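Lab notes, practical 5.
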Amino acid sequence: MQARLPLIAMGLLAMAGCTPQPPDCSRVSNRRNLIQCLAWNQGRSDRDLLQACWPLSPSSRIEGIWVTSLENSSFFERATQLDRSMLTRLATWLEVANPPAEVIRSQQGEALRAYQISLVGRQTLCEAHYGHMGVFPHEVIVDRIVHLQPLDTHPLAGR
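Output from the prediction step:
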């Protein structure tokens, strides 16, 4: 039994070292810390501010459906089919540095658009206020779009 105890303890310690630690959300949850971080990074782009002041996941491959419309960039991770609720529901804000021209027009009010998307990006780890007017609980920063396939929104619009 005594010989087993050190092996068990070593195994537990090894597992503890491999377990991801919860993110430090103090900058997001503590208004003073957040204001201080924003002040230190004044003049930087929104994308750079997000990376400086909020904890993000490591860059990884993410897939889902991206819905764009007037001042909207909703991302539904792991979704494989467009459904009517996605046209009006907020999900995760998708931040794309250089979106296609049709996406820009959509976000300026031209027309609702939806895409099946595969991307490499980083996700916010703390729930807060992201995206347009801070109404989104999370955000994904897109480092690179791997695949973007337009989806037909017309069958859903008339229901």
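Observations recorded by the TA: Confidence is low (pLDDT under 50) at residues 1-7. The chain has two domains: 24-55, 56-159.
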